[in-house]
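Q: Hi! First time doing this. I have a protein sequence and I read that you can turn it into a structure. Is that right? Here it is:
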Amino acid sequence: MQARKVGVLLGGLSSEREVSLRTGEAVLAALRERGHDAIPIYVDGDIDVALRQEAIDVAFVCLHGRLGEDGCVQGLLELLGIPYTGSDVMASALAMHKGKAKELFRLHNLPTPAYYTLTPDDLGDLAGAHGDFGFPCVVKPAREGSSVGVTICRARASTTTRTSTRAARPTTSCRRGCRRSAIAACSRRRYARTSRSGAAARPAST
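A: Yes, that's right. Below is the predicted 3D structure, encoded as structure tokens:
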């Protein structure tokens, strides 16, 4: 049986590029140590060209963050007919988008911290949007990986500053001029259960 050629995808265009490089190099070394025919494929804007040129049999995805964990690279690999490690397109996209993931959790009545989402349009009345949500709260970009952009806010002033940064700054990887939306999750209550009808989750008053 002929050994399959493994392409280790590393690097990428997200803010987690350096982490991905370290992950990919470790995976590449481990595969070669075990006798696999493995090569590095450094991901940039021409990843489709590189994949065609290398003619790999399977892709080992070591990408972090946008374009690597959100279903984009997975979709490209599907189109090229290349098997790959990890979750498929839909699972990757839903898991990467914190708002959509939490909607699914609530739909299936799974315990998840109370939250709400913000867009740049909400910044004019952030106090109104936050309402009685409470402090401390955690602000996180909705479509970044790991702990990128996570901030714990303990007062309204810090929430205004951090959320303005998270929600209004243009993304670095989206070519269509999309903007970030931020998720604020309250830490005053560990979990918020919601009905299957999708009633809004709010922390209990204290």
